[in-house]
Amino acid sequence: MSEKSDKTEQQRLSVFKTYKLYVGGKFPRSESGRVYDVTDSKGKWLANAPLSSRKDARDAVVAARKAFGGWSGATAYNRGQVLYRVAEMLEGRREQFVREVADAEGLSKAKATVLVDATIDRWVWYAGWTDKIAQVVGGGNPVAGPFFNLSSPEPTGVVTVLAPQESSFLGLVSVLAPVIATGNTAVVIASEKSPLPALSLGEVLATSDVPGGVVNVLSGRTAEIATPLAAHQDVNAIDLAGADDVLAKELEIAAADNLKRVLRPQPVGEVDWSTTPGLDRMTAFLETKTVWHPTGALGASGSSY
Amino acid sequence: MASTPASASVFEYAPAPESRSVVDIAPSYGLFIDGEFTEAADGKVFKTVSPSTEEVLSEIAQAGEADVDRAAKAARRAFEKWSALPGSERAKYLFRIARIIQERSRELAVLETLDNGKPIKETRDTDLPLVAAHFFYYAGWADKLDHAGFGANPRPLGVAGQVIPWNFPLLMLAWKIAPALATGNTVVLKPAETTPLSALFFADICRQAGLPRGVVNILPGYGDSGAALVAHPDVNKVAFTGSTAVGKEIARTVAGTRKKVTLELGGKGANIVFDDAPIDQAVEGIVTGIFFNQGQVCCAGSRLLVQESIQDELLDSLKRRLSTLRLGDPLDKNTDIGAINSAEQLARITSLVEQGSAEGAERWSPECELPSSGYWFAPTLFTNVTQAHTIARDEIFGPVLSVLTFRTPDEAVAKANNTQYGLSAGIWTEKGSRILAVASKLRAGVIWSNTFNKFDPTSPFGGYKESGFGREGGRHGLEAYLDV
Description:
The complex is a heterodimer.
Chain A: H1 2-11, E1 35-39, E2 45-50, H2 54-73, H3 76-92, H4 94-105, H5 109-127, H6 133-137, E3 139-140, E4 147-155, E5 158-162, H7 170-181, E6 185-189, H8 196-206, E7 215-218, H9 222-231, E8 237-239, H10 245-255, E9 261-263, H11 280-283, E10 286-294
Parallel strand pairs in A: 5-6, 5-8, 6-7, 8-9
Antiparallel strand pairs in A: 1-2, 3-4, 4-10
Helix pairs in contact in A: 2-9, 3-5, 4-5, 5-7, 9-10
Chain B: H1 5-10, E1 28-29, E2 31-33, E3 36-38, E4 45-49, E5 56-61, H2 65-84, H3 87-103, H4 105-116, H5 120-141, E6 159-163, H6 169-182, E7 186-190, H7 197-208, E8 216-218, H8 223-231, E9 237-241, H9 244-253, E10 260-264, E11 270-273, H10 279-291, E12 303-307, H11 311-322, H12 343-358, E13 362-364, E14 380-383, H13 390-393, E15 400-406, H14 409-417, E16 424-428, H15 432-441, E17 446-449, E18 468-469, H16 476-479
Parallel strand pairs in B: 1-5, 6-7, 6-9, 7-8, 9-10, 11-12, 11-16, 12-15, 14-15, 16-17
Antiparallel strand pairs in B: 2-3, 4-5, 10-18, 13-14
């Protein structure tokens, strides 16, 4: 009996997945029609991934900008609920991600499992931050006058994220989740050689109540996609985690053109995605808005209530 | 306008000049490096003049690349000991500085008015009190950094290279130096070439306070000195306040380095007046918003957005108010509008205003007699301005207000946000929910509702978009100087 079913397994032809981009809540191929070979760590062919073009990058920015008003305007509680839903969906796809991460990073199943579990837990960690960050980094300021004065963090806008090249899933989520938790929208460039976990994450996001356009995932040559995004006038910030020193410098220079907020890559050797993050990947993409209003205190100021 | 018949018929003001004798300006000043005043390596000097009279006030050593190098190295040497001091000791130096500034505030106010051209009323009542308050505020942080929300024992960055503008010379120095020293950094600061004097007097205050050598270095000079400072390998932190064009250049210069940067750049602030606003208060706020410091303020409310239905009433009232402003001797305690800081700035304002007229906007100024010497520009109002006009898009940095209209709150928000900048905005309405709704939609770092141009050391200041990044002031202002 068992022999027979084993044989059936072996004889059954598996169904391959066509990996596609995730832009504006849809799954397009690259408009260029191009793909590139994705292999595992031993060089075995895994899939044809879309080789995104400049046009794909620009389309992703349009989608991210369109989604920004709704996502940044949603209540922090709502964003937390949506992000927690992502973790729930990730949990359900755990086996798939273990396989993809093991292939991508050349890890044993056990080691890949540790990474995927950490990734899901990381997502839960950031989901809980949505309605707390404003209390931690904002607050009232005791100005020396009859004024109410309040500083609040606000998302900076559309953020381009160069996902880490080596850590295809834990690294990816560690840079993406903090960007969107605070209300930004993102254009993510997946790890160039290991894009499959990122493309599969798009499928998770699409089924997790994350509004289309909040996260847009592009695969292809990092430098080719990042260059137009660094220079794009409707991108507010760029996370260079996945850039080497040479590319990071070029992109930072291009980003100066409209004064994008730039998060530089961590120096090689200081990158450890497994440690619990601080606030810095969130605060890097937050603006502080300070609002003043007279309190109506009587006195020499001349104001009254 | 003190001398115009219109105002003369109501009130005649006798001159009320503040005495110049409280300040003693030396005929020449050196660079302040490693605790000593010194000549520039190449012996270069430049003159600083009083913008209200064109009188030469002093001759100043002009820092070149060699001087920048010397100052940066002095700051580097001083960093080890300064950063190792207990925070409580650093705090006491800063408290000393704050107190000395208070003691010498009349002298510094007169000095600033002479070198900058702004009215004594402003230097005396705004600049100097804020300068002292800023040092007091950050002094208190020096031994409390563990509790600032950046983790335990946050470390300083090293040498801070700071470049400041001429519009609030000593206040911008305070915004830069106070948090840098409190967090344990050492400083090389370049004041603007038209207003170097108060920074050099501050150097003397550092000596009076017994500040260790090399902790603060002051390098007067032009843009090239600033560029050399920003690029210097010993500089770990760059803080700049000035134009957006230079800010972008700085961002390119530091690309690929580990230098931390904060930029506080230009603005084109919208001051939005809704139909239910208290007109008299709004008029005062509009005047403060654009004519404070002759409009040479990055967060000036230079675009007035007025709801169409009250445009006529508001503009009548505003014009009446502008006719009572007194332009003239900045040292006169009754003066509202002082001199433009430099001939160069006056030329820029003049050219943009001419462009405004040429593009079809309607120009108005109160009757106004300008002094015969010095750099002066009458308060100016443009109506019939559209969003496409240059005067509605470019920062003029002068006493020039562009008036646009809107019909709905959504239109007001859209027009206010239709700019590359995002530094400040004003909202005038009696409806609380409208203030909060509009404030949340405006993409600007500082929103003044039913007030304008208020500043405080505890209140973070800085912009969105091309107005720069990072915040100065408050707990937020510490982050720029810490390795976090």
